[in-house]
Amino acid sequence: MHDVGLIRNFSIIAHIDHGKSTLADRLIQLAGIVDERTFQDQILDNMEIERERGITIKSQAVALPYVAADGRSYTLNLIDTPGHVDFSYEVSRALASCEGVLLVIDAAQGVQAQTVANLYLALEHDLTIIPVINKIDLPAADIPKVKGQIAAELGLDPEEALLCSAKEGTGVEAVMEEIVRRIPPPGGDENKPLAALIFDAQYDSYRGTVIHVRLFDGTVAAGDVIRLFSTGATYRVEEVGHFLLHRQKREALRAGEVGYVIAGIKTIADVRTGDTITHDERPCPRPLAGFRESKPVVFASIYPIAADDYEDLAAALEKYKLNDASFVYEKDSSAALGHGFRCGFLGLLHLEVVQERLEREYDLGIILTPPSVRYRFLLKSGEVVEVDNPARYPDPAAIDHAEEPYIRAVMILPDRYLGAVMKLCRDKRGENPHLHYPSPGRVEMTFEMPLAEVIYDFYDRFKSVTQGYGSFDYELIDYRPSRLVLLDILVNGERVDALSQIVHRDQARPRGLTACERLQEEIPRQMFKIAIQAAIGSEIIARTTISPFRKDVTAKCYGGDITRKRKLLEKQKKGKKRMKMIGSVSIPQSAFLAVLKSDSP
Question: Which of 309, 303, 392, 311 is nearest to 343 (CA)?
Fold first, then answer.
């Protein structure tokens, strides 16, 4: 008999590095669904890159059987979510599948920016929140202070906070009991038409796309014909089941349960996170709330280092896209770098993850152009053009005005770093600062600033000026008018298209000078003088020069009249001039890589 009262659906949310994956490990061990021999840390993080960086990139689900103190057998469905701001849409869909969350807070670091952001996400979905103070075994743990922060900054009852050390396993049993006691069982009626939320999907090379679902109403079993709401596509279900670390086949999934559906769906692009599944013959009246397309925010072009690797890169991107529906790409080409792809990412971490996975899993050498955001240009004709690639910059004479995306950045830091962070935000064109002191010695700062400034090198510099104690979270707010220009780099009078950037007018000269200086260091000297220039239109705003090799033509003239020496030097000068006119400069790969690396502070 299917008793919905014995099911609990919950998620663990936390700021990065507060011990979310470790707590998930302990809960899985306690449930006994994996023996000690096959257990490994961060067991839900399947990808090598997740383990190395200690971050979760993909949501994972696992059903934990648990016999509570009252003697009844419960099924606790844990939906593990990414903690990083880039993947917040995945987090919100995972939370929509739950009735409650464990909000994990580090006993030494206390409440951080993303702890607050995650709390708001949980409150939006009207979830039961259980605060868990983790890492109580650390020498720097300060439990009374953290309890004070829970009351002051999160508005939760600090007495309800559970104390545990996921690393040592202390207090984990109590966490299990509280999940059963405090989190309500799921609602839903299995006699109603099927309504299931897709919170994730993964690609299996033998079975096609495996959809992770949470059923709100109805049942689904093998042989049913299902329909996806956003695309209207229909599929026949081949298999359904639960996750017990590995897929376990079941007869059917019923209202309130979390599980997987395999229905012969070819690619992950056909499935959208947040979409609703229903029966084709007996559909539910409307889709479940909250579905939106995840839109890329940061754009960059990817080129193969060796031109003949282009086919391999195309195949790798196609395979990668099967596992990451939020990644978008299209063909692109550049005079300097050849054929490549223009790609869209959810944020800088997403970009780094894609780059690293392409290099590691597909063994590719790739070059990434400087990341840019999507700018909006209003032309004098009244037309609105969205540009994410400097190559598509409209004719400057036709532009009425330009707009760029702004974000609201929330930073929590010790107040001793306030001045340094204030200066950094001002340098990055931050405006409308708002300060709030949630607890003694800590300050919460809110700034509105252009997204383009944040993706350049803001995060690294923020971490260094706060010595790693600051935490940072952001959300997109709107587009605002801005003075944007197209910055071109010229080598020996020729434009290098791969190095063009769209920048704010005030940033153009420093950015241009940096690029020129880096190229000067990397381009080998020739027999003639090479000018490296940064330009806006026809206006040169920065320049460096690579001096030529010079043969000492006057070596054989010792003594005698100066005019003989002068004549030889003039002859050499003419030769160099002629050489410069016909000589072409080939820019080495290392020069592109040097310019494309962002500034270190």
Answer: 303
Q: Considering its fold, how many domains does the chain have in total?
A: 5
Contacts with 40 (C-beta within 8 Å, 6 or more apart), sequence order: none
Q: Are residues 42 and 132 in the same domain?
A: yes
The secondary element (H helix, E strand) that includes residue 34 is none
- Is residue 286 included in any domain, yes or no? no
Task: State how far the Cα of 109 lies from the Cα of 199, in Å rounded to an integer.
Answer: 30
Answer yes or no: are the C-beta atoms of 359 and 304 closer than 8 Å: no
Let me know whether 176 and 55 are in one domain.
yes
**Can you name the residues that pair with 342 across neighbouring β-strands?**
301, 330
- Report helix angle 310-323 to 348-361, nearest 10: 120
What's the token pair of residue 271?
A: 């499935």
Residue 454 is assigned to a structural domain of this protein: yes
The Cα angle at residue 301 between residues 297 and 302, in degrees rounded to 5: 125
pLDDT band at 343 (very low <50, low <70, confident <90, very high): confident
Q: Could you tell me if residue 290 is left (phi over 0), alpha (psi between -120 and 50 degrees) or otherwise beta?
A: left
| Per-residue pLDDT reduced to its tens digit, 150-192 | 888 777 887 878 888 877 777 788 888 888 888 888 877 778 8
Q: Are residues 158 and 109 in the same domain?
A: yes
Out of 448, 482, 516, a domain closes at 482
Structure tokens at 542: 């920065």
pLDDT of residue 601: 34
pTM, two decimal places: 0.67
* Contacts for 64 with CB less than 8 Å, ≥ 6 apart: 27, 28, 30, 31, 33, 75, 76, 77, 78
Residue 141 domain boundaries: 4-182
SS3 readout for 241-267: EEEECEEEEECEEECCCEEEEECCCCC
Could you tell me the CATH number of the domain that includes residue 514? 3.30.70.2570
| Rounded-to-integer distance, Cα 553 and Cα 148, Å | 80
Residue with tokens 């995306």: 405
List Cβ neighbours of 22 (8 Å cut-off, separation of 6 or more): 41, 42, 134, 166, 167
153 & 13 share domain: yes
Q: Is 167 found in the same domain as 63?
A: yes
Phi-psi category of residue 427: left, alpha or beta, with phi > 0 → left and psi -120 to 50 → alpha: alpha
Tokens 């104690």 found at: 469
Please report, for residues 480, 485, 537, 546, 587, the alpha-carbon distance to residue 540 in angstroms, rounded to integers and kept in the order given.
28, 13, 8, 17, 20
**DSSP symbols for 506-532:** HHHHHHHHHHHHHHHHHSPP-SS-EEE
